[in-house]
Amino acid sequence: MTEDRPASPYQPEELVRQDGVGVPDPFMRLWTPHRMAYIEGENKPTSAEAGSGCPFCRLPSQPDADALIVHRGEAAYAVLNLYPYNPGHLMVVPYRHVADYTELSGAEVADVATLTQQAMQAVRTVSGAHGFNIGMNQGEIAGAGIAAHLHQHVVPRWAGDTNFMPAIAHTKVLPQLLSDTRALLAKSWP
User: Fold this and answer.
1) CATH number where 98 lies
2) According to the annotation, is 130 in a ligand binding site?
3) How many domains is the chain built from?
4) Could you give the C-alpha distances from 71 to 28, 34, 92, 154, in angstroms and in order?
5) Is residue 137 part of an annotated ligand binding site?
6) What confidence score (pLDDT) does residue 23 get?
7) Where is motif Histidine triad motif found (predicted)?
């Protein structure tokens, strides 16, 4: 261990050495370069128009495994969030390109509700989620990343799932690949 810093039980000496990369410090780093795509707005629509520029319009034309679609309903589909808050975070998306919940037809509202219930059942079967955060961000000002195409988030929660990583390090540790999560949920869909 270097003389200017005490040994840490959480960080072996070989991980602390940072020769040539700046001033050594006691922090470990979890590199998540895939998050740069989200931060830089990659694949984010440049207009509010429907069509191939909207990922939620484009996804249903792809194979389920490639698009991370877990289940297809009559008027909506369930898809894993490409940038999840928690493992199993998925979204229920109407096929029709509408921005506001009040624009949905009765059949679309019913399908979004049914798929949300089924998503909760599938996630509980696969992972034993203790609870869920379910909701929509209506409009860019309300936090919608893709405001032009309505989507409802279904975020599984577990006791103690908010630990020091997201609270202090602004980092979420996801223990499973999205393709593996998609396969488990699709297999367990009611």
Assistant:
1) 3.30.428.10
2) no
3) 1
4) 38, 25, 9, 14
5) no
6) 61
7) 149-153
